[in-house]
Each structure stands twice: as structure tokens, then as C-alpha cells.
Amino acid sequence: MSDIIQLLPDSVANQIAAGEVVQRPASAVKELIENAIDAGADKIQLILKDAGKSLIQVIDNGCGMSLTDARMCFERHATSKIRKAEDLFAIRTMGFRGEAMASIAAIAQVELKTRRVEDELGTLIEIEGSEVVKQEACQCNAGTSICIKNLFYNIPARRNFLKGNPVEMRHIIDEFQRVALANPQIFFTLHHDGQEVYHLPSASLKQRIIHLLGNQYNQRLVPVEEETSIINLKGYVGKPEFARKTRGEQFFFVNNRFIKDGYLNHAVMTAFEELLPDESYPLYVLFIDIDPAKIDINVHPTKTEIKYQDEKSIYAIIRSAVKRSLGRYNITPTIDFDQENSIEHLITAKPLEDIVAPSISFNPDFNPFAAESTTKRDPNFRNHGDYQKSAIPANWDTLYQISQRDAPQQHQMDTGEQKVEINDEQVIKSSERQLFQIHNRLILSQIKSGFMLLNQQYAHERVLYERFLQQLENHSGVSQQTLFPQSVTLNGADFEMLRELLPDVRALGFDIREFGKNTVVVEGIPAELPNANEHELLEHLLEGFKNNLAILKLDKRDNLARALARNGAIKAGTRLSLEEMNILVDQLFACQMPNISLSGKPIIITFTLAELLEKFEK
Fold first, then answer.
1. Does domain 436-606 have CATH number 3.30.1370.100?
2. What angle do CA 224, 227, 230 make, to 5 degrees?
3. Which 3-state string (H, E, C) describes 449-479?
4. DSSP character at residue 29
5. What residue segments make up the domains of the chain, in order of their start?
6. What are phi and psi of 227, to 5 degrees?
């Protein structure tokens, strides 16, 4: 029997390795930008076409490469970052394995132009599927320009698994934001299909956060800074009142490398304990500077996981530093009056001799029950006579008429005779129904066998959800035009998501058009939500959509209808009139699933007369 084990060709081995290193265009963008940063560039341009599927180009003004280095960078395990195994525990650069360029060259058409400052001519190399097609001298600027065309062109199965352009663009923006936050001293630009998405000049960390996430974040940031013998911590956390329902704005950096760490994230969430509503996540951008010998970053292909020698100490430092910053900037309440200095600035010192005791003047002869004719006017009291006239008005008895009015009709529990059969329960028709609202949260209605309690918020969510689903299927949403069109500016990822959802959003009744960079103009909103704020409505809609997408993995239209219904429904504590309650009950029982809320909880709970009587007999 012949031998069956053989070495794979380098091209096949590179394609296999590419499956771990390059999962989508965003992975290639991350590797190329990190290489530009390691090259010492202070200006990096990213140019994309078709969300990176057709073209990814990164241009930098770094150190450039010689002819030999340009050719070697596409070989497997060829790197300038380490020389021996011990160097893995002293890494300060972004890349070190030497796999990215070889993996990218195996699955795309790559064009590299590079020149060192001291060289007169640069080098041009073209590679397709790990094969060098062209290598020659060329004229180019100092630094490196690398183009990746037709990603996964020779692996159709992998290319077919790529999502639509808006989804892939969101992943690219996420990677771009992480690198841009970690390097605020570098000038970045991002162009997609000929339009500039980001223009980020060199700035401080706070300015970089504002440039990336929006001007409204200027008032939301609380600085954090702590220096210890274990780690140095700096960065910003968001104020609790601006926390969001999704985890999209949490950034941890270790030695300027973005990481994902649930343990450290728990430390920050613990610091916000009792300051956040349920299922809310604050913004934070925190940088940890630590000795590379105390961590291991070579534990995951994407380098987003790190092992620490002393995790518990790092956890305690982060938790205490964030908590102290929140307290220092009066975000958390304090009962230590020695540390509370906000009152001291309101009190000014004054000499004792300048303090004058307040004086009070009054008329000892004033009788409020005396007749107007016998009242003596005191010259020290202005408009005394006018006060006396209005003290006991002539029609004083009408003030008590409001207490004699009949109680509202919804408080009565009388039954009628006309009934309609719904879900095996006889529910009174709206023309005869008497309803009662309990604590502005529940609606009580009498039925044949007893009574039912209905959760008004869950009921309205169900009504809106099924209505929005029908509108999405029939494209029949009705729009209520706003008096003045409102412009809404979103961050890059949310803007790309809105562009993806725009046809369905318009089908719901929104009248929205794009208006420049990351900005849309809202000219109309769904008629079911007439009093909503346009900016808050869009933000909550996108937040709910992302939250449902991460947890429930819903269909796009179902997700959109669910998010808008939860955002537009009346909330617990809203006072409803009898007519509004009747309409809500009628609409609920017209739904396909009137008993179950969007979260799977019951909307209606019934109590039989026998159960009530049994309570009295105990």
C-alpha cells in the first residue's frame, strides 16, 4: 500500500490559513491598517468599493519597503516584528505572526506599491492567488499603497457567504473605529464608493471620540485615569443617563490593541451598579498600559483575546477607578459632606457686623372676617383693600361643585346584555362595556365568568406589531408629515444600517431621505406615532433592531416591526380615557394573537367569580 500523507502546496496552505485570518473584507481592512501603523505612518487613507468586495486600498506615508522586503512580505511566517520565540512576550506592535499578507494574497488580486524615503524608485508587485504576476520598479510616493481587488475571487463558496454591502460596510466601520480610537494622533480618512465617510484629523482622545460618535457625546464623557504598579489606566466612560440598550459602544484597549474581555467588562458594569436601568450598557473607551511580559496575546487568530498573569488585581483596579471617577464628577450621590464641595461655592463669607436681621411688619387691627366697610386701611400694606375684597368671593359656594360631580363612567362595573364570543370568553361589546384603569397600568373589564385584567403596554405593543407587519407586507404605511423637516445625524455604523433598512422603514410610514455625510432628513413619521421626537424615534428604532438581532436572530421585517412597536407603544403610567381603553381592547381582540405579548408574557389574565368568592370564604 502506497503512502497517503503528503505536504500541501503553499497556495492551498495559504487558502486554509486565510479562513482563520480573513473571514470577510473587514478582516483584511484591519490587517492592512495595522501594518500601516506598525510602519510608523501618521496619515492613513482607506478607499473601498462595494463594501470591500471589489476594492480595498490602504495608502500610508510610513517607512516603506525595499525590493527584497516587498517580495518577502507575501511569504508565510515572514515578519519584521519578532526574531525569536521570547519576543512574543515583549510585543508592542499590532502584527507579529507574518500570516496576514500571505493569506490575503492567496484569495485576492493584490497590487503593492512601496518606496522608502531614501530610494529614488519604488517597487510594484502584482499577485493573484499566491502567484507573482508582475514585479518591477515604479515611480510612487514614499510609503506604501496596497490594493486588494476581488476578495475571494478564487473561492466562490466563501464569497457567496458574504452579506450585503450595508452589513459588510458596518463590519468595516467597526474595525475602522477601533483602530482610529486607539491612534488619535494619526490622520485617517475613509472613502466608500467615491463618498467620504470619515475625515479624522490628528486630535486628542476626547476629540477623536466626538469625531467618530457625534458631537452630542461632548457632554456625555467622564474622564478616567489611574496609575498603579500593575497597570496604567486612562480613557473615558459615559454618563449613566446616556446608556444604550446594546453593547456597541464598549471599547477596551490593551497596549493600544482592541480586545474583547467579558471579565473586564463586568468590572466596569459593577462600577455602574445601581446607576443604570435594567439591560442598559454604558459607553466606555478605556486604555490599559501593561508590561507585555505579563500578558499573552498569541491565544486567538484575530488577537482579540488576551491572557493576564494577575486578572483579579486588574479587575479591582478598573472597578475602583471607574467608580471613583463617577463619584469625583458628581455622577454618583454622596453622603460624606466633607467631600461634597458643590455647596461651598454657593456661600460667600460676610462680616458679622454687616448681617442685618430680617424685619416683619403687620397690621394688628386686621380682621379677615370683618366686613369691607369696617376694614381700616393700613398705609404700610399695599393693596390691602383689594385683598380683603377677594378674600371671600361672592360665589364661594361654586368652588365645591366639583366634589358633587358623578364619578367617571369607567369606574362602574355594571354589565350589559349584548356580548360577543372571543377566545371562549364572553366579552362585552364596546358600546356597552364599562372599563376601569388601575394605577394607570392595567385595564379591568367584566366578563361573563368574572373579570379580566389587561396590561395596557403589552396590549398596545401587540396591536402596533401586527399592524406594522401588515404594512411591511403591503407597503401600506401612512405617513404624518412633520411641520418642519428634521435633520438627524447618526454614527457611521447606524447610518449604514439605516440605509440597509430604508425601503422597509419607508413602508412603515417614514418619509426619510439621505442628506450628506451620515445625515438623513425626516419629513414624515408613521401616523400611529404622531407625537414622537424624530431623532429619538430613529435612535430607539435602530437600538431595538440591533438588540433583537443580537438576541433573537429575527427576520429583518419582523425585527423592524417589533422594534418600532416597542418604541411607539404607550408606557405604563399613561392615563387613558374610557374611549381610548375601549379602542385599545377592540384592537387587541382583533389581533391574531391577543393573549401573548412580544416578549412571550401574558397580556390578559382572567379571574372567575368562583375564585373571588373562594377568597372571601377562607
1. yes
2. 120
3. CEEEEEEHHHHHHHHHHHHHHHHHHHCCCCE
4. H
5. 10-200, 205-329, 436-606
6. -120, 125
Q: How far apart are CA 288 and CA 297, in angstroms?
A: 14
- In the chain, what's the furthest Cα-to-Cα distance? 132
Q: CA angle, corner 21, sides to 17 and 23, nearest 5?
A: 105
C-alpha triplet 486, 277, 312: angle, nearest 5°: 120
Residues 616, 618: Cα–Cα separation, whole Å: 6
Place of cell 531614501: 118
User: Where residue 351 falls among pLDDT bands split at 50, 70, 90?
Assistant: low
pLDDT digits (tens, 9 = 90+) for 69-97: 888 888 877 776 665 665 555 666 665 66
Sheet holding 284-289, edge to edge: 221-227, 232-238, 284-289, 250-254, 257-259
CATH class, range 10-200: alpha beta
pLDDT in tens, 558-600: 888 888 888 888 888 888 888 888 889 888 988 888 888 888 8
Contacts of 344 (CB under 8 A, 6+ apart): none
Query: Is 106 buried (19+), middle (13-18) or exposed (0-12) by CB count in 10 A?
Result: buried
Query: Quick check: 308 pLDDT over 70?
Result: yes
Type of residue at 14:
N
Class at the top of the CATH hierarchy for domain 205-329: alpha beta
Q: Is residue 537 predicted with pLDDT exceeding 60?
A: yes
pLDDT of the residue at 189:
94
- C-alpha to C-alpha distance for 173 and 493, rounded to whole angstroms: 6
pLDDT of 394 strictly over 50: yes
Between residues 306 and 149, the one the model is more confident about: 149
Instruction: In whole angstroms, give the CA distance from residue 562 to residue 579.
Output: 26
Phi/psi of residue 413, nearest 5 degrees:
-115, 20
- Say how many residues make up the chain: 618
Which range is most confident: 423-437, 519-533, 602-616? 602-616
- 462 pLDDT higher than 60: yes
**Is residue 464 within 8 Å of 528, Cβ to Cβ?**
yes
Q: Are 101 and 73 in contact (CB under 8 A)?
A: yes
